[in-house]
Amino acid sequence: MPESTAGVDGERVAAHPTSWSETYDALRVRDPSELTPREHEQLADAAWWLSKPGESIAARQRAYAGYAESGKDPRAAYMAGRLAVEHFMRGEPAVGAGWLMRAHRHLDGRPDSIEHGFLAVVEATVARFGGDLDQASELATHGAEIGRRLHDPDVIALAIHTSGLIAIAQGRETEGVAMLDEAMTAVVAGELSSFFTGVVYCNVIEACLELADVRRAGEWSEAARAWCESLPPESPYPGLCRINRAQVARLRGAWAEAEAEALRASEELMSFDPAAAASALYEAGEIRRRIGNDAGAEEAFARARELGVEPQPGLALLRLGQGKVEPAQTSLRLAVASGEGNSLRRARLLMAQVDVALAAHDPETARAARDELALIARDSGRPALSAAAASADATLRLAEADVSGALERARRAGSIWQELKLPYEAAHARLTYGLALRASGGEEDAGSELRAALATFERLGAAPDARRTADLLSTGRGLPRGLSLREAEVLRLLATGKTNREIAAALVISEHTVARHLQNMFVKLGVSSRSAATAFAFEHNLA
């Protein structure tokens, strides 16, 4: 194995991580015909780590040919196995399968070796993606047995984490996650070679995010940070890992870091994996939308779409923020109807659909999205999905003037988001809770919640949310005649000549709710007409 694992012939072939550049510079200037198979392999590893995949594959093919010609079949098998992996990662399954078959031919009739264990894990992964989970499980178990018998930490960790991914796919989530945790302990302990450290690290983080287990993803990401920071700046390892780190950083509120990671990943992956590059661009667009860089978000979302990834729900929320409700509703409805994505992605789509549907005066769609999200959360048992469901429910209840229900659900959502250490989501829950408190007449407590939300938005750089929250704080002070914040908002819009429908659109509530607020407001002001209410608004500087 490269870097830390010796082949059956005892050779250690790869450069030390700190000398990839030196190894590459020293070997690439020499005549390839003069290099030994071992040096070709060193050049292949160095080129791979320097983001030169084409050169890496060419050098590894020469290493394979040299080992095969000299009769070093186990080493030739390993080279063929690595070539299989790299072609599978490049989206070239036929080429990958061909190299995998060739790898097996070199091991036919030989006793179990480290190379046998490695190939068993590769085959298990192929079977997993092909849907044959039982065969995949058997292969991964066999690989783990070989790794333990021959005391190879790379094969052991690869097999254990592959078994975990298979268990999750089979519905044995608790068992699978435990295996992922076990494999990651080898990563953070520094027991694995760098290439397989990255394989395990990226797959585990991605699996955690797919399960909506953002807390576990964040914990392992932080635990593996030292390894990440030890890599040279030109290292590509692999693009999906960088996207995963960008997602975790975004969730944790480190938006500058997240955007930098996402943009770098998109550049590195553009030629290697356009779909992954599109996912990275979507991450960048999400961050730009949150900080108020609409033009930058438009650019990132458009590029992601060109590369084959539908940029939702980010694009719909961008349109909603721009007041383009109908395009937001249409694009989001199509994204939800497609049924694609893991549970966390679908939860984000449904949360956005609640907001967009309310803005479009479509409470039926909002309720359907809320109800589906509640079912997903109940079935998964994941805290993040429970918080998402509670947040959506609180928003809908507040729009429907169910103040007590909104208070309870917003409080629950905020508690979970805070426990998960997701500041942006927690701040939004506090904002909703604060508005519910105001609607219940608790002005002082409402102000405290809104100020706390504002402080978080400002710290994160969430300019649009900060402006909205600051406006809510400003308009909520010193309201006459016992007006609630929402009633004052309705009065302000009424004074501009807006109809009930237009007021409902501006405040993302139903026309029925607007009518109820107007009725209550007329009673408090002692007026009986819209013109009299407008006059009151101007007299008391509420217009």
Detailed description of the structure:
- The protein has 543 residues and is an all-alpha fold.
- Among the domains are: 238-311, Serine Threonine Protein Phosphatase 5, Tetratricopeptide repeat (Alpha Horseshoe); 480-543, Winged helix-like DNA-binding domain superfamily/Winged helix DNA-binding domain (Arc Repressor Mutant, subunit A), CATH 1.10.10.10.
- It has 29 helices and no strands.
- The chain has helices at 20-28, 37-49, 53-69, 73-89, 93-107, 114-130, 133-149, 153-169, 173-188, 194-210, 214-223, 225-230, 239-252, 255-269, 274-291, 294-306, 314-321, 325-338, 343-359, 363-380, 383-399, 403-420, 423-439, 443-460, 463-475, 485-494, 500-507, 511-525, 530-539.
- Helix 19 (343-359) runs parallel beside helix 21.
- The longest helix is centred in the middle third of the chain and has 18 residues, at 274-291.
- It is elongated, with a radius of gyration of 28 Å.
- Mean pLDDT is 89; it is low at 1-15.
Gyration radius (Cα, Å) is 28 Å
Largest sheet: none
**Helix residue percentage:** over 70%
The CATH architecture of the domain at 238-311 would be Alpha Horseshoe
- What is the arithmetic mean of pLDDT? 89
How many strand elements?
Answer: 0
* Structural class by helix and strand composition: mainly alpha
CATH topology of the domain at 238-311: Serine Threonine Protein Phosphatase 5, Tetratricopeptide repeat
Helix/strand order: HHHHHHHHHHHHHHHHHHHHHHHHHHHHH
Strand content range: under 5%
Overall morphology: elongated
Distance between the termini: 73 Å
The unreliable regions are: 1-15
Number of helices: 29
CATH C-level class of the domain at 238-311 is Mainly Alpha
